[in-house]
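re: that chain from earlier
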Amino acid sequence: MSAGTFAATFFASVVEAIEMVAIVVGVGVIRGWRSSLVGAAVGFVVLIILGGALGTALTSIPISALRLIIGALLLIFGLQWLRKGIQRVARKGFAGDEEEVDADVDRGTHLGLDWTAFVLSFKGVLLEGLEIAFIVVTFGAASNEIWLGALGGGLAIVLVGAMGFVFRDSLVRIPRSVLILVVGLMLTTFGTFWAAEGVHISWPGGEWALLVLLALYVSVSLAFVALQRRRQLAATPQEAAA
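^ sequence. v structure.
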């Protein structure tokens, strides 16, 4: 039973950890690592405090309301970044224009932190961390091996986080305009998924529905990029004639 508890907790937690790390890494690459990592660290501190204070009572937290609030906020940020990414890619292509994108992104810094990056990472870590905590409590309590469940959940976070750290340099080499589009797609996808779950919509296939949502948003975004490029090409001869 011990091996089964560890394996079930680990593999269930890996899915949530991937979502968590994807948000932290994506926001870090676009907005800055310091603020993103500080937000993630504060999220983990809140999780530790909640875990220590509530223990198995964590399952009484209204996760649906939390999903709705965080999902809606991620959706708002994601759609804003998606719009910017579509505009930049349509104008400059997938090669991007780093200076223009950097100048356009509002950093919103205060007290030395980019608060947009801080909040996005904090919310991603808090929600996904609570999901992992629920998994740990559920599987661990069922087998009376909470410590083994916690080991499986913790190992999942460490391994997925290490993979995100290793591949961060590859992400940095991607043009920023394309990264803004990609992170916008990611935040919009997670935001839609979580907000819908918050109002008790059951997604067919569970977490696999994220891939369908992502494919839908990618298709729509590429269509808008193509439409924008056609409009710009049509406008160019008119501007030259004027």
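Residues 38 and 203 are 32 Å apart (CA to CA).
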